[in-house]
Amino acid sequence: MLSTFYGADRLDSPAAWAAAFILGVLFGLALERAGFGSSRRLAAVFYLDDLAVIKVMFTALVTAMLALLLLTGSGLLPPEHLFYLPTVYGAHLLGGLILGTGFAMGGWCPGTAAVGAASGKLDALLFLAGGVLGCLLYNELYPWLAPLAAWGEAGVDFLSPHLGLSQGAAAFYVTLLAVLVFWGCEILERRRGVGGALLSGRFLPTFSLALLLTAAVAYLVAPLDLAQVSAAGPSREAALLAQIEAGTDHIEPEELADRLLAREAGLVVADVRTEAEYRAFHLRGAIHAPLPRVHEVLAPYKNRGLIVLYSGGMTHAAQARDSLARQGFRNVYLLSEGLTGFRERVLKPASLREETPTPEKAARIRAWRAFFLAAPAAVAGPEPAEMPAPLPGLIETDWLARNLGQPWIKIIDLRSQPEYNTGHIPGAVYLSYDSLRGVVGGVSSMLLPAELLAAHFSLIGVTPRDLVVLIPGEKMHDATLVGMAAERLGHRRYAILQGGMAKWLKEKRPLTTALPAAAPSSYYPVQPGADDFTVDARAVLEASQQGRPLILDVRPAEYFRGEKSEEARAGHIPGARNRPFSEDVVAGPEGVFFKPAAELAAAYARLLPDKQSPVIVHCRTGHQASQTFFVLKRLLGYRQVKYYDAGWSEWASRPELPVAPGK
Amino acid sequence: MGDSGKPPMNPYLAGVFLGLVLTASYAVLGAGLGASGGLARLAAALSHLVAPAHTQASAYFGAWAPHYLSYYLVFMFLGLFVGGFLSAWTAGRLQPGLERGLGCPPGRRALFALGGGVLVGFASRLAQGCTSGQALSGGALLLTGSLIFLAALFIAGFAVARFFRGQWYA
């Protein structure tokens, strides 16, 4: 039985290089003897003046095809020891068209040009120089060409199954076709008076018969389906299974974290998820090796150092590992429990863990978190071009529909739970805005502290790089209140759906009743000091006494005037101005919309002359004021907007604070 | 500049010879013949000479860093020159010069040869091989992509040949 260099994974050895050199010499000899050291003769095929190119090429193809069938069919050459070029339909079609054009233009192809150059042909040398330029051009343009190069990837793909034939039968028909083509070539050459000498004499009939007989024999000895045998070599498969069995192909998250932290040389961590997922979050230092290109990307590290693959869970990484093992990679390991396990076992802060870690373990966790989470530059997010701009801001239903399913988008549905359960945007999670509020320091309905908000974000799977899309039901201020939570966490990547759920429904956009397929909890880190906008009663009292910043009471006018009251006292903070929040939105059966920015800008310009004017917004509980905050700060660009969360609810209940009676 | 030296071999026998060399390549190396792979490695090595950091960081050539030329197809490419030279020499076909039709100015032929090379070099990367590495080697295993490539190559060649006729015929 023959063992090939490829099969033994020694194609990169000097012995293989020597063999390749000798084969190259024979290859050059064959091409030159065929007369392919002449561009004129090669190009003549395209003008039907000399069909030698077709004859030689087709004969060589058929000869090798039959010889390989005989070798594999007789068991001399194990089919899994051969390298099969994967098919990429689009790239092969387009590449063939461009290459054919270059062939007709230059009169050479790379192999024949090498032979031509060796025969002293200057045009062959020029052609090769052009070839080098073409390769350089391809390399420079590769970032843009990569999708094209992968256009129509089909893996190793044999023609025979497409025709419903076995490999042996397909080979027989191809041989038959070749014989017909050869006779056609000779007849055509004779008619054109440029050859066809072989039509007379015994050569062509004898040759045709010999080919067909060989094809018949090959058909008989080649019952094997190449496509099946090539998929997996038995010996490698067994070794692989043994390795999986022994569990020696896994690495635990803690161990990987420590080794990455130590910046171990020769350790390559590869993320096999999609590009969008990789961009949204990846382990610090991990390279991106998406499944379709995993061989290509990892080729430089084959059997050098240690490769650790990870995906979200384990499935995709295991798939990639199996495929790499079949290609002879012996240094590939899997991250146990994938990224989910890594988040849970490495990134989760000590305070949120079920078992209180020992002080040493807690110190280790802090070190891991500092390394993996504190480097936002290493954690790339989606390209700005994909994000709606500016953020925080508004997005339209069109944009959301186009980007549904992007892993870096987290949709939060703020309607009631029955409404959510009977149909929501695919991928959306339900959240009650009120779950983000609670009693803080004796004051009710306060936005929760950052740590608790971060825990909420973690539970619904939001990470710092995600775009949070808020879907209001009937009230825009439900969405802006969750927006305030994001603001408190320093999470700027959030947007509110203009029109809300009503517009989505009206436009008959996609809906589902199923829960999001995978909503793993994530870990949301707390950024201390992100909230620099929430003010307390003392700051508001000062503003009231000094007349600056402007206090903007956004409650309905009758509450401001004291005609209506649900609190201890009626009225408003002395010096405050009233701009009811409801003035900024239009709500109706079509949905709930912010008014056009120009209209809002004109209205607020009367209250706040320039964008630097300081202002404190408040309402009764902070709910409605969150909307005015969003309008001023995020839609209109006011820079000094503060938020008195406790609002009238607290103010009215503290008798020492002054109240202006309504007028 | 007409052909001189011995007339070329019977194309069918030459084809059988080439087919057997290809079979030997598969039987020994486990991979087929190839020419553009070596050319591309050469391009990467040249690129490295001019801009090492850029080449190492580039998405395509970068995968081959730092030993761009330590690849079996580079050695096969070298062998091609040696074999081609030996054969041309023994057959009396060593003919230094620019091969072109009588009516074609040398400049035009040179430009076409260079331009054709650029297209072929580029296309060979896109299709992961050229006439030998993709069409012939993959075709012999009846791989779908290789056969599509082979058909597209001839279709395009026949379709555009008329525009380049002037370099061969008066």
Description:
Chain A is an alpha/beta fold and 663 residues long. Chain A contains 27 helices and 20 strands. In chain A, helix 3 runs antiparallel to helix 8 (167-191), helix 8 packs antiparallel against helix 9 (203-221) and helix 21 crosses helix 26. The longest helix of chain A is centred in the first third of the chain and has 28 residues, at 122-149. Chain A is elongated. The termini of chain A are far apart. Chain B is mainly alpha-helical and 170 residues long. Chain B has 2 domains: 1-96, no CATH class; 100-170, no CATH class. Helices cover 62% and strands 0% of the residues of chain B. Chain B has helices at residues 11-28, 36-50, 52-57, 72-90, 106-126, 131-139, 144-160. The interface between A and B is large, with 139 and 130 residues.
Brief descriptors of the model:
heterodimer; A: 663 residues; alpha/beta; Oxidized Rhodanese, domain 1; 4 domains; five-stranded parallel beta sheet; 27 helices; 20 strands; B: 170 residues; mainly alpha
